[in-house]
Amino acid sequence: MSQRITALLEKHHHSKDELVELLSVQSDQEIALILDKALQKKASAVGRKVYLRGLIELSNICSKNCYYCGIRAGNKNVERYTLSDEEVLSCADFAWKQGFGSLVIQTGEQSGQAFADHIERLLNKIHEQTNSELTITLSCGEQPEEVYRRWKQAGADRYLLRIETTNKELYYKIHPNDKNHAWENRIESLENLRKTGFQVGTGVMIGLPGQTLEDLADDLIFFRSLDIDMVGMGPYIEHAETPLFANVHELWPAPERFRKGLLMIALLRLNMSLINIAASTALETLDPLGRQKGILAGANVVMPNLTPVSNRKNYQLYNNKPNLDKDASLSTVTLNQVISSIGETICFNQPGDSKHFLKRVADNQENFSAK
Ligand code: SF4
Fold this sequence. Notes:
Blueprint: H1 2-8, H2 16-23, H3 28-45, E1 49-52, E2 54-59, H4 85-97, E3 102-107, H5 113-129, E4 135-139, H6 145-153, E5 158-160, H7 168-174, H8 183-196, E6 199-202, E7 205-206, H9 213-225, E8 230-235, H10 254-271, E9 276-279, H11 281-286, H12 290-296, E10 301-302, H13 309-312, H14 328-341, E11 345-346, H15 355-370
Parallel strand pairs: 1-10, 1-11, 2-3, 3-4, 4-5, 5-6, 6-8, 7-8, 8-9
Helix pairs in contact: 2-9, 3-10, 4-5, 6-8
Bound molecules: iron/sulfur cluster.
């Protein structure tokens, strides 16, 4: 069996059947073979480097009702907040002075003119305050193409919009089947983001109730077919105040969800060697060394949480989210030590653009000049 796995790992592109076969491995030895190969691929393609994205959870107000999410509109137990501009600028200042190179602004999904203006204003203010030395990723949900364009023009570089699962039937088991949560809107938004010129990121949950290895293989193939630039994915972790919690008995055991999370990162690195892959906090929730293990499986991005500590408890998409009470400055020092201890280097003061994106832009320019 290990010989078969070794042979499969020589390939740069795997078919769906091959991905399912690789995702099915159970022995520690075979899992280690896959993770080691992914680390080798990471080293040769993007280096043993880790890029930082300071995460600002701007607001937990959300108009949607995804069945898995702790801050869904229908959860009346959540105390809603929106950070002031001053608070956001203070987080951005911290990230800038600590040399993070990059920020992620994440919110629950809101819409309308006032929200579009709000994000645009923040982008302008952050760039003004930091000499445009921070690259900014937005994760603010589905928006009209026009709004994406405005935010791009105001200086957002990257956009993360997770598909959560590419199996449409499963998608409607974890989202209401209505206009506000339509699968087609999600796909259209991803296409619009690409058209607008963003580095586009997406991602999925791993180990959802009813999800199969075939579904996960399809997710990996979806990333490839969309030619995605970055991925943030992690194990599904239940939240007690959500409708999906009723299906908790169907879940794979947490260690299995964790292993599949690592395998998904490794297989993604093997198949899309130049993209950026985040080591999610969900990994850290299931295993205290989850972040390091994610990096050693092929991830190259971590997102230290800069949200003011007093607000973090109100931004729990799932239960037991880690670092709810850690001061960001303390986390940075610790993180640097932790990353060095596993033979990786944090790239301070660098934007950490997706090499996959930069290559596509260069290839397009070359093709254009050749015409
Ligand atoms: S997953 Fe996102 S869009 Fe869905 S309810 Fe949670 S914050 Fe809102």
